[in-house]
Amino acid sequence: MSLNKYKTFILVVELGSLTRAAEATGITQSAVSHIINSMEREFGFSLLRRGKSGAALTADGERVLPAIRDIVNGSRRLDQIVTAIRGADSGIVRIGTFTSVAVHWLPGMIKAFQRDYPNVELKLMSGDYHDVEQWLEEGSADIGFVALPSRPAFTVSPLVEDRLLAIVPKDHRLAALPNFPLEEVADEPFISLLESSNQDVRRALESVGVRPKIRFTTKDDYAIIAMVEQGLGMSIMPELLLRGRTGNVCAMALQPAASRIIGLAIPDPDKAGPATLRFSDYVTAWVKKEYGQGPSGGA
To answer: Which of 93, 161, 191, 293 supports an S-S bond with 297, CB 3.0-4.6 Å?
Structure first.
């Protein structure tokens, strides 16, 4: 039974008249009469006694009225709860992210956001590029950090340009050079991320026509650093990911230079809750404070 029918029935009872209920709801008296008749057919008994003096509840109508009121009032309470959750002062924001952002960006962003919105729960979902895009596409995440270009279904705001760096063991034959020549990758054992997460490096190598000799493949970014430390090969990784973790490896700028663009994606801003949109604003403000003017001022 439609909730609007219940609301109309209660209004008829409260006003004591089908005519006055019709005037209050902006529909015709015949439409109100049809609603009551359909309810009576649905229930199998009469709800109202109609007369020249108006409408009054039957004994059966009096019995069902409290339950109908409970349904309508419960719906109103649900609407209030949903409204509060969708507001920026409460609710849940599900954030898809990859390792470097989760480690080096999100703690500061969350601290700034929750200082002003302590009742919003932030749920972090950490994976690789492919995972984040999948979560956004299927609706598991409300907002996510992606590497551009990303899937066209999302609305993406570029945030920062992040350099790609070569990492080699400290005693590597090329470690003393000012930059690592990309063509040299063809002659080195290479440690790679999974193909679904390695498009930045793949584009950089394809730009100079180099095919790497992949010796190991892993989904774990920091496992790659550990393997390079042990002399098992070299790799190319984003500068943000390497922040604070180059003590036992040599990180070198690439020649020619290469980079990735980190962006913030929302599947559909028109359907996003206020808390999600507000968190997006805080992300943008934090990046601007830390990096300056966005992609052109990146690391």
So the answer is: 293
Please answer whether residues 43 and 70 qualify as being in contact, where contact means their C-beta atoms are separated by less than 8 angstroms: no
Residues of the chain with pLDDT > 90, as a percent, come to 66
* Nearest in space to 260 (alpha carbons), one of 79, 74, 58, 101: 101
Tally helices (H) and strands (E) across the chain.
Answer: 11, 12
Cα(228)–Cα(234) distance, integer angstroms: 6
Burial class (CB within 10 angstroms; exposed 0-12, middle 13-18, buried 19+) of 27: middle
What are the pLDDT digits (tens) for 231-247? Answer: 999 999 999 999 988 88
The residues near 67 (Cβ < 8 Å, ≥ 6 apart) are: none
- Looking up tokens 């003393």 gives 176
* Distance of alpha carbon 214 from alpha carbon 186, whole angstroms: 10
Q: Which long-range contacts (CB under 8 A, 24 or more apart) does 254-258 make?
A: 254/163, 254/164, 254/165, 254/166, 254/179, 254/180, 254/182, 254/204, 255/179, 255/180, 255/181, 255/182, 256/182, 256/207, 256/208, 257/163, 258/163, 258/164, 258/182, 258/200, 258/201, 258/203, 258/204, 258/207
CA distance 198 to 237: 9
What gap in Å lies between CA 252 and CA 109, rounded to an integer? Answer: 29
What is d(CA 186, CA 174) in angstroms, rounded to the nearest whole number?
Answer: 14
**Distance between alpha carbon 39 and the CA centroid of its chain, in Å?**
43
Chain segment 69-116, per-residue pLDDT in tens: 889 878 876 765 676 677 667 778 899 999 999 999 999 999 999 999
Nearby residues of 188 by Cβ (< 8 Å), 6 or more positions away:
168, 212, 213, 233, 234
pLDDT: which is higher, 292 or 5? 5
237 bridge partner residues:
165
CA distances from 129 to 63, 136, 198 (A): 58, 11, 8
Which residue in the block uniquely carries the two structure tokens 């529909």?
A: 27
- Element housing 184 (H / E): none
